[in-house]
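Second opinion, please. Pick holes in both lines of this record:
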Amino acid sequence: ARLPFTWPKYADQVGEMVNYSMIERTYRYSTSEPLYPFGFGLSYTTFQYVGDTHTAFVKAGAKLKGQFWIENTGTVDADEVTQIYIGWRDPALAAPRLQLAWFQRYTVPVSKPGRGLTIDYEVDARAMAVWKDDGWYIEEGMMDLYIGGDQPLQKRRAEGTYIRDEFKIVGSAYLGKY
């Protein structure tokens, strides 16, 4: 199982109740190290993520499609909740630090060396959009992509690896209100 929220490490990491900003309220806008990050969970085994292939350029409004490989490097068959996060580099609009863009649960049998599961994924364009006064926009620019079993860039992580990659959004798009 994975945590559906972030456990703060200290009480002062939680914003004031009268401050309606999302800064420091969710993993998406947090700048401090939590006790347990969103998406954290333990397993009876370990997993290795390797070999992400995806399009390097994505037209604004289109899906990011890709594929990666996951191996169970432990001693027992187990389920893994694979999570894909994206992050904006130098956004012109206010954007989250990280965004959970895709997740899926898989039963992964113990792998023999060089054998595992090949996983296809699609990150919907709505996951790449940020809010502006009159609706959701996708802006041109570089994006970070993280694939693994928990939230990336955290001190407290489950055992295993994650993939760090990037892609570029080409052009911009207005998605409207939804």
Q: What stands out?
A: The chain has no helices and eleven strands. The radius of gyration is 17 Å. The chain has a mean pLDDT of 86. The longest strand covers residues 78-88.
